[in-house]
Design brief:
Blueprint: E1 4-8, H1 13-24, E2 28-33, E3 49-53, H2 59-73, E4 78-81, H3 98-126, E5 130-134, H4 148-167, E6 173-178, H5 201-211, E7 222-224
Parallel strand pairs: 1-2, 1-4, 2-3, 4-5, 5-6, 6-7
Helix pairs in contact: 1-5, 2-3, 3-4
């Protein structure tokens, strides 16, 4: 079944790997990008892919992108949230670091909330809507001294539960994808785990693709994975 997929975070990392995989699977893509020219001349600059300006901190941007996608493709039946930011803001943050908390909330929580709200009527109309959200293991537990980032991810997990409850009777299924370290630019400073031992973006793309093949009665709400043992 060919799907029309609205995808954030496709300019790099996990989002880009998912976009490539879904394109190869034959799906139609609408990619929301801070710079719509970022993918010009790449393997994602093809007929089956629409590029559109999108700023997760701007609700009007979500409405504009959704509207353009529906005019171009005629429908939206899948929404994949991959965009997010990381600040290592501790519990006892310094003066001036409170801005990081606002940014984490705006991008990691309110951004997906606004975009889901904008796309919701079309997910309902499809009768088999799918939402995938890259949450992270940081939405399930807190390690070390980081506070701002995991708090935003815990909130995102709560948002996903609300999506699931609101959409269940309308055929919408939600999956939280919760990896630990993934071999991307965001994890480039990590020394505790070698890049080759981390979860690879292509593996997450494979999982994302497989989820879209599952019937309503078999779509998991949560996929948690870890590249190292936690007890």
């Amino acid at each position: 079944m060919q799907r029309t997929v609205l995808l954030t975070g496709a300019s790099r990392g996990i989002g880009r790997s998912i976009a490539r995989r879904l394109l190869n699977d034959g799906h139609r893509l609408s990619l929301g990008l801070r710079d719509p020219k970022a993918l010009r001349g790449t393997d994602l600059d093809v007929e089956m892919v629409l590029h559109h300006a999108y700023d997760a901190s701007d609700p009007a941007s979500a409405d504009s992108w959704v509207g353009s996608t529906v005019r171009h493709w005629g429908a939206i039946d899948t929404l994949i949230h991959c965009a997010g930011i990381l600040h290592r803001t501790p519990l006892l943050f310094s003066d001036g670091e409170e801005q990081q908390l606002d940014e984490l909330w705006a991008i990691n929580v309110k951004g997906p909330w606004w975009l889901t709200r904008a796309a919701w009527p079309f997910l309902v109309t499809s009768g088999h809507g799918r939402i995938q959200v890259l949450v992270s293991m940081s939405g399930k537990r807190v390690k070390g001294r980081m506070a701002g980032y995991p708090v935003s991810k815990f909130a995102l997990m709560g948002l996903c539960q609300s999506m699931r409850n609101e959409g269940w009777d309308k055929g919408i299924r939600v999956t939280c994808i919760c990896p630990s370290w993934v071999n991307t630019e965001m994890a480039s400073s990590v020394t505790a785990v070698e890049p080759a031992e981390m979860t690879q973006p292509e593996d997450l793309a494979s999982l994302s693709s497989s989820l879209l093949l599952m019937p309503n009665a078999a779509v998991p709400f949560e996929l948690a994975m870890n590249c190292s043992l936690e007890t």
